[in-house]
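re: ur question from earlier - yeah i can do the single chain one, its not a big deal. heres the input i used so u can compare w yours
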Amino acid sequence: MSLETPRVGVLAFHTSPELRAIEGAISELGAVPVRLNEESLTLTAGDSGVSIEPDIDVCINRILLSTQSYPLDPIGVAHTISQAVPMINDPFATVRATHKFMTLSTLSEAGILVPASVCSLNHDRLFTSNKTLTESVVYKRAVGTHGSNVLQANRNNPPEPQFGDRLSLTQSRIKPPGDRWWDRRIYVVADSVIAAMDRFAAKTDWRANIARGGYAVDVTDDLDDVLVSLAVDATAAIGLDCAGIDLITDGDRWYVLEVNPTAGFKGLFSATGISPAPYIVALALDRISVSTDPEVLVKASKSMDEPTVSEM
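and the output i got, formated as tokens:
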């Protein structure tokens, strides 16, 4: 390392195995993890510019905007920090990724294939505005996580409004090959694919979420160059440094469903034996001109250990 004992901030207002794994990887790579949350963080601005307490050299943004009651507050915090130190996952790129239709429209404009979709505050128009929608559609809120607030619907027999005055969208429901519903999660850091898995829905569900009782299979070594490029290009189009890319195929073409800026990877690690955490940390260290030994990086990716030294 070219910088003596770097201090890597991890910005998050929640706790999770992934968060602890990132802090563990920071320790493993010889830096000091510094948790930035409501209990520890103070920001100041004045004649001398922006300052952060506790002191950090670089920051990894792990805010879950989809769970925030007042998301503009953490966005403001993250942006302020990004003015003072390099940040992994720009706060405004995370907004673009968290809002599902903003993601779809951005990808579409970039020439990346997405399912036909409609977004409207008018419930009836959700089911009539796009004639290319399949008869069976996915009906969901524009912001959500873990498959929550997601329903199946028939565009010819629309359901009653389900999400109050929240912005909603409909999307063509693409059926993948096989007897069970499944999709693919590809985890991207910088311009590289770290690991990938196919997620199969539980027998009684159509949503391929591990959090909803599904299971996963390692497909890291099965990806072709086209699919790798698609995942990397989707991450770049949204403006993120790292993301979990969700894709689905109809057997002929692959569609990008979502770009997850704070994607969980406990299930990915269970399926593949690879943790993205050290690769995220290595990217953060690279932003402050600190190099990482590739052998140490690979070794660190084989576990999701918690930090040995940290500041909370």
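The radius of gyration is 20 Å. not sure if urs matches, ping me
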